[in-house]
Amino acid sequence: MIVRVDYPQNFAWVAGWALLFLLDCLWLSITKLDCFVGYASLRKGVPTSMGVGAVAMYTFVASLAVSTLTFSERTEAAAFGAAAGFVIFASYNITTITVDARWVGADALCDTAYGVLSWTVLLAAMHTW
Predict the structure, then answer these.
(1) 69-71 and 3-5: which strand pairing?
(2) Burial degree of 95 (CB within 10 A; 0-12, 13-18, 19+)
(3) Is the pLDDT of residue 8 over 60?
(4) For residues 94 and 92, what is the distance between their CA atoms, to the nearest angstrom?
């Protein structure tokens, strides 16, 4: 796998930001279901605007950073995305389980799986653009 890091050459990161933002909004809507106990307890007292703002900032930074990577094939981009998504989301979830008793293992596993999926889709799509 050859990965080249360069300055963003086009505005693919804007499309990547929109894609990741929509995926995260969809995911956070799904987590409002009763089966996601940890999400419900963490969400209490947090204004919706603050949550949307945090998602917008995270997805902006992530898509801009990802746009600096160049892969020779879409499968390499997708594999890198899966690995990056796993590391990022597993790190977050392990840390959250450690410091917050409200976060449960089932939610952490689902969230990590979502991270792998979303970052795989993001990098594969951005490779095409």
Answers:
(1) antiparallel
(2) exposed
(3) no
(4) 6
